[in-house]
Amino acid sequence: MHLEGRDGRRYPGAPAVELLQTSVPSGLAELVAGKRRLPRGAGGADPSHSCPRGAAGQSSWAPAGQEFASFLTKGRSHSSLPQMSSSRSKDSCFTENTPLLRNSLQEKGSRCIPVYHPEFITAEESWEDSSADWERRYLLSREVSGLSASASSEKGDLLDSPHIRLRLSKLRRCVQWLKVMGLFAFVVLCSILFSLYPDQGKLWQLLALSPLENYSVNLSSHVDSTLLQVDLAGALVASGPSRPGREEHIVVELTQADALGSRWRRPQQVTHNWTVYLNPRRSEHSVMSRTFEVLTRETVSISIRASLQQTQAVPLLMAHQYLRGSVETQVTIATAILAGVYALIIFEIVHRTLAAMLGSLAALAALAVIGDRPSLTHVVEWIDFETLALLFGMMILVAIFSETGFFDYCAVKAYRLSRGRVWAMIIMLCLIAAVLSAFLDNVTTMLLFTPVTIRLCEVLNLDPRQVLIAEVIFTNIGGAATAIGDPPNVIIVSNQELRKMGLDFAGFTAHMFIGICLVLLVCFPLLRLLYWNRKLYNKEPSEIVELKHEIHVWRLTAQRISPASREETAVRRLLLGKVLALEHLLARRLHTFHRQISQEDKNWETNIQELQKKHRISDGILLAKCLTVLGFVIFMFFLNSFVPGIHLDLGWIAILGAIWLLILADIHDFEIILHRVEWATLLFFAALFVLMEALAHLHLIEYVGEQTALLIKMVPEEQRLIAAIVLVVWVSALASSLIDNIPFTATM
Q1: Helices within 461-538 (DSSP H only)
Q2: Higher model confidence: residue 62 or residue 543?
Q3: How would residue 15 be classed by pLDDT, with cut points 50, 70 and 90?
C-alpha cells in the first residue's frame, strides 16, 4: 500500500504491512489504478473535493474500479508488499491505493472506500463517530490489506522476540553452566574419595591341598567391616559339573558366631559353605571370589578341604579382605551409577565416551570407599584388548578401502541394473548395504553410502530420507550376520568364557547367518508394505510448490474478509473463485506429474553415463589389494575356528591384516588414515570394560543374575527354557531401542 499527495507524488505512510509474513501475488501490490478521490461520506459525492483541508491526515481513500475483477484471472507471480514507514508526510492530503479495495460493481460507477489507521488521525480531529462505527469502517482495511488483529499480534511478537531470544539465550547459558559445574563438582568429589583410601593390595597364601589334609585359619574381625571377601586362584572352573558323577572340588567353610547371642545363651555358630570345582586341565588359571556377611566382631574361622580322585596335592592361592558396606548398599550404588551413565547417553548430556569415563571414575571411587580399591595394573587388566585390537584393525582396513570409490561404484551399479526402476534400485541398494555391513562396520558403510544415495534420489526425483531409512534398517540386519559386522558381536565373540564353551567366529556366524537370511526374506515385503502409502516422490517440481503456496495465500486472504457489506461479499466471492480456478490448475498439473513419475525413467541411460563419470573406481590397483587382504583376513577368521594349530586370536588377525594392507597400499600420508580411526569408540569400549568390571565387584551383575534366576524359577520347570529365551530376547530388544547397544551388551 502507498500514499499519494495532491501533486501525485508518493509518500511513506503507516507501519509496514505483512500478509501472513509470506510473499503474495505481485498484482496485489501493483494493481493501484485510478486516482479519483471522493470526500469522506457517500460514494457519489463530488470528486472535486478530494481532500478537505480540515481533514489533513485524517483518512485515506482507496479507489474502487473494474480492474480488480480482471486482475484475479491474471498470471501468477510473487512479490512482497511494499513497506511503509511510520513517519508522516508533509502533504496535507493523502490517498491510499490498494488493489483489494477496488470494487467490481461497474453499474455503480467508481467509488472510494474510506480507510483509516490510528496513526493517521490528528489531534485536531474530533471523534464524531462512535468507536464502534469507526471499527466497522476500519475492518475492511485491516482484513484485506493484512492489517488484521493477527498481524498486529505478530508485530507485537516481533517486538518481543528479541527479549524472548535474550531470555532463552540466558536460560540456555544458565543450564550449560549448571551442567558443567555439576559434572565438575561430581568429578572432584570422586577424585577426592578415590585418593583418600589407599590401595591395600591382596596378600596371597600358597596352599597345597590334598584329600588327607585340611587347611584352616582364624581371622580377627574389623570394627567397621560388614563383609568378608575370600579369593581363590588356581585351576578352577566357574560353572558346575558338565556331567553327573564324581567331580573334583574344594569346599570352603566359614564359621562365625551368631549376632543374636546373649549373656545367658551361648552364641550359635553360623556356617557358610562354598563349593568350587576344579578344572581337569591343571594348566589353566582363573580367579574366583565370594563375599560373606560378617555378623559379629568375633573371630571368623575359615576351613578348606579338597575332594580329589588322586592323592596328589593341588596348588591353590587364597586371599581375604574385609569390606565396608553391605551387599544391598553396594548394589544400590552400582545401580545409581549405571542409571546415571545411561541417562547421560540417552539424553546426550555429554558424549557417550565421556559418560562411560565418568561412570568408571564413580565406580572406582565407590570401590575405594568400601575398601576394594584396585591398583592401576589391575584396572588395565580389566580392559579386553583383543576386542580393541579387532576393532582397530578393521577400522584401518575400512579407512584404506574407502579410498577406492568402491561404495559409489556399487550404488551406481545398482541403478544400472535396475534400469531406473525405483523399487528395484531401492532393493538392490539395501541388499548391497546389508552384504557389505556383514564384513565391515555398518556405521562406516552408511557414511560412505549416504552421498551417492542422495545423488541417485536427485536423479530419480525421490525423497532421500525414505531410501536412507531403508538402508539403515538393512545395514543393521546385515551387521548382525557375522562376528565382525557390529561392535556388540565383537564383544560377544571376544569373551573368553564363551570361547571356552565353543562360541567362536565360525559358530557365531553359522548360527546368525541362517537367521539373518530368514529376516531378510521377511523384511523385503515388509519394507514394501511400510512404504505402501508413503510418497517416495515427495520432491515436487518448483511450479507445483509455488502454485500450492499461492492457493494458500489467496485462501487465507479470502477467509480474512468478513461479509459485512456487499462490497466485501463481492471481493470474497472473487477471491474464492480465484482459489477454485487455481485448484483446478493444480489438479491437472499433479495428474501430469504423477503420470510422468509412474513411468519408467526414459533418460536412465543418460543419467547412468553422468553418474559413472562422477562416481567410479578411483584406484583399481588399490581396490584389488584391499579385496585380497580383506578376503584373506575373513578366511583366517574362519580358519581360526577349525584349525587348532593357528595360535592367533581375532584381534591379532585384524592387526596383521591392517599392517599388510598398509605395506601393500604404500601409504605415505599416514595421518589421514589415523584420522579416520574412531578413537572415541575405542576409548568408549575401554571405559565400558572398566565400568562393567567395577560394577561386577560391586555385586550388581551377581544381583541381576540372581533376580533373573528367581524370575525364571517361578515358571514351571518344563517351560523355563522358553521363558528364559523370551525374557532375554525381549528385554534386550526393548532396552537396546532406548539405550546404546554396546553398553547393554557389555552389561548382559
Answers
A1: 464-479, 487-494, 496-500, 505-530
A2: 543
A3: very low
